Amino acid sequence: MITVKTIRELRAAVARARGEGKRIALVPTMGNLHAGHIALVEKARQRADFVVVSIFVNPLQFGPNEDLDNYPRTLAADQEKLFGAGCNLLFVPGVEEMYPGGLQSQTQVSVTGVSEGLCGDRRPGHFDGVATVVTKLFNIAQPDIAIFGEKDYQQLAVIRTMVRDLNMPVQIFGEPTVRAGDGLALSSRNGYLSEEQRAIAPALYRTLCDAAAAIQAGERDFDRLIRDGLAALERAGFRPDYLEIREANSLRPATAADHQLVVLAAAFIGNTRLIDNLSVEIAGQ
Ligand SMILES: Nc1ncnc2c1ncn2[C@@H]1O[C@H](COP(=O)(O)OP(=O)(O)OP(=O)(O)O)[C@@H](O)[C@H]1O
Ligand SMILES: CC(C)(CO)[C@@H](O)C(=O)[O-]
Ligand code: BAL
């Protein structure tokens, strides 16, 4: 595995791999890697011959009061994990390499529809920042495929929409959320939790499971399910940001006629904001 910091080095290595007839995969990350990221890398290995992982804590997708400065940066440990997972090239650009003209003058990519509501409302500008950096990473690495986690469900929908609308020649794969034994979705931000907060955290997934089970059992009063879910999160010690039930593909609010649903939630424990989601397929329809 080689680690490069510049677009020029990345392009040269990818051109060599392509010249050898290799299929290129890209796994974009913000680092502080855990088993969820490694599962994406392993999937990339299965589907391609040359795996590029990027680690870039993208300032463009953070709001002014968010955790950009505190976001964990653990390059040496990440390199070790990626080497073990069969990554071929690690791209770790600095902010200047990615945004040489500064953040203000950066052309931005903005996806309508699926980026509205949910995290799009709670984190204004977030998905413009994500769509912009992912477009840049696609243009820089020109991968055949790119792999993302379903944990960031709305992000995956935004990227799929962007690729479709802008005819980007890259195939997108979404991978299931990797969870701890108690159900908590693995996330770099879990590292912010104290022992006491970590004990509260699995209630987020439990709440999603309860809502999904109620839908499977025939409940279609989604407003009531949302109210119950928000109350359950509060009882557990969360400060809920949102809990919503959406149609799984369009992300519009679900109706009783929909067959593929997703329950999505974001909630704070102290200053730490966790997100999670659970898809619900209504069988036999
Ligand atoms: N538990 C997980 N299972 C599968 N994929 C995941 C998981 N957590 C993150 N990913 C995916 O890894 C990629 C990089 O995500 P990122 O580096 O932001 O990690 P993260 O753990 O989600 O961090 P954060 O705490 O900032 O949300 C994204 O495609 C994301 O969806
Ligand atoms: C896709 C991504 C790497 C873009 O910065 C980021 O949003 C993430 O880690 O999910
Ligand atoms: N995992 C999504 C990146 C973010 O929260 O900014």
Automatic annotation (TrEMBL):
(R)-pantoate binds at residues 61, 155. The keyword Nucleus does not apply. Its EC number is 6.3.2.1. It holds the Pfam family Pantoate_ligase. ATP binds at residues 30-37, 149-152, 178, 186-189. Pathway: Cofactor biosynthesis; (R)-pantothenate biosynthesis; (R)-pantothenate from (R)-pantoate and beta-alanine: step 1/1. Beta-alanine binds at residue 61. The active site is at 37 (proton donor). One of its GO terms (molecular function) is pantoate-beta-alanine ligase activity. It is found in: Cytoplasm. It catalyses: (R)-pantoate + beta-alanine + ATP = (R)-pantothenate + AMP + diphosphate + H(+). The keyword Cell wall biogenesis/degradation does not apply. NCBIfam families: cyt_tran_rel, panC. Homodimer. Belongs to the pantothenate synthetase family. The reaction proceeds by a bi uni uni bi ping pong mechanism. This is Pantothenate synthetase. The gene is panC.
